[in-house]
Structure to design on (228 residues):
């Protein structure tokens, strides 16, 4: 069975600070990995995804994530956050199942 | 529309009543998923459809929950004899196919269900 763990449930940063949100998964085979974002009052939307190739994936709005197979991790990063990045962030893994498994989410608040 | 459409956006009902939630996926998307999101929790998988069939119903919490999909398009999630613990946001997502490994899901705005 596949599972996902997001270590940080709540993160509070000031604008221009760097961000790294942890995501670890459990699955022994080939995986596809996703980060979704849910801005206040909006629906979940895809931020970035990894399925093969370069383990460093770049997404929208300056976000990137690195797949480290040996660590079963897919951490999300952004060098300098903005107030508009305030949102809920979800990591998801899709392994052998057709059903992506989502983490519990990380609430990010960025103070101006 | 271009996105996944869910209705109603909000539903308040009394304990014991039945409710029906609707999802209209993106045109051409064959896979459709239902999730439940409770406060402070992640997305809890309920059921998924490939076309009109539901290969995986393992996430349905009890036999009070059922779902159907007709014409490979619209899906309805029905909760019978609602309980207060059913209060949550019910999310629907669709993707072009379920078998493609890298198919992202497109989510609707959800239905916020409140059981009094």
């Amino acid at each position: 069975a596949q599972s996902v763990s997001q270590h940080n449930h709540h993160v509070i940063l000031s604008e221009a600070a760097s961000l790294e949100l942890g995501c670890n998964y459990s699955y022994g085979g080939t995986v596809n990995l996703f980060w979704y974002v849910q801005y206040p009052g909006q629906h979940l939307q895809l931020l970035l995804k990894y399925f093969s190739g370069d383990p460093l994936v770049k997404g929208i709005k300056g976000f990137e994530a690195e797949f480290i197979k040996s660590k079963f991790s897919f951490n999300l990063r952004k060098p300098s956050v903005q107030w508009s990045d305030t949102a809920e962030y979800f990591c998801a893994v899709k392994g052998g199942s057709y059903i992506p498994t989502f983490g519990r989410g990380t609430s990010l608040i960025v103070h101006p | 529309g271009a996105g996944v459409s869910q209705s109603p956006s909000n539903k308040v009902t009394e304990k014991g009543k039945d409710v029906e939630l609707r999802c209209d996926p993106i045109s051409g998307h064959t896979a459709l998923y239902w999730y439940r999101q409770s406060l402070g929790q992640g997305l809890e998988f309920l059921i998924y459809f490939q076309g009109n069939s539901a290969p995986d119903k393992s996430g349905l919490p009890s036999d009070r929950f059922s779902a159907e999909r007709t014409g490979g398009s619209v899906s309805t999630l029905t909760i019978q004899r609602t309980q207060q613990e059913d209060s949550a946001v019910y999310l629907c997502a669709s993707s072009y196919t379920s078998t493609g490994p890298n198919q992202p899901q497109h989510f609707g705005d959800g239905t916020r269900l409140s059981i009094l």
Remarks:
- The mean pLDDT of chain A is 93.
- The interface with chain B takes residues 6, 9, 30, 32, 34, 36, 42-46, 49, 51-52, 90, 94, 97-105 of chain A (CB under 8 Å).
